[in-house]
Amino acid sequence: xxxxxxxxxLGMSQVFTDAGEAVPVTVLEAGPNTVVQIKREDxxxxxxxxxxxxxxxxxxxxxxxxxxxxxxxGVEPQRFLLESRVTSEEAEGLEIGQELKADLFEAGxxxxxxxxxxxxxxxxxxxxxxxxxxxxxxxxxxYFRHPGSIGAGASPGxxxxxxxxxxxxxxVRVTVQNLEVVRVDPENNLxxxxxxxxxxxxxxxxxxxxxx
Length: 212
Hints:
Layout: E1 5-16, E2 22-29, E3 33-39, E4 49-56, H1 64-73, E5 78-85, H2 88-92, E6 99-100, E7 110-116, E8 121-123, H3 125-129, E9 167-169, E10 173-185, E11 190-194, E12 204-209
Antiparallel strand pairs: 1-2, 1-12, 2-11, 3-4, 3-6, 4-5, 7-10, 7-12, 8-9, 10-11
């Protein structure tokens, strides 16, 4: 178990190493995250967790229960809230109102990035599943990008569930594991992660220490 830090994806860039190698990186604005609530196993919730808030939002856009939740913690209203399961030892080192920033990570560390992939709309089997395009000869007519046969005839006489067909592509939760932290900029709360991270620019991404 580890804290998942809420980040905003700023886009991709490249970082040059001392050896002159150009490393493609994704730039993440890692916080600051504010501790809004701490749940403990001996409390009414029955488990240990920490609730983090990220981003600004006008107070008149919240309902009264939400405003009361933030007022009880003594923090400004937060646009996003996220709860992370933590150990009792990790919870002891936190307090309500504390800010968690990019220095939670360090260069060379392995992390997992969790986000929502870009939505591609309704896509066919060629784009969605990588099906082969049919030959444009030997009598093929208007079936170049079709899936072909999807089931048998008399037996079993139906289409089995789970087959690769056309449908909604993207806009799903994606976890990319064991990404390398190339650089951390504590002053600007930036984390440079090697490789690609799911989501569009300005998308919300959760960053945590690698669990594998």
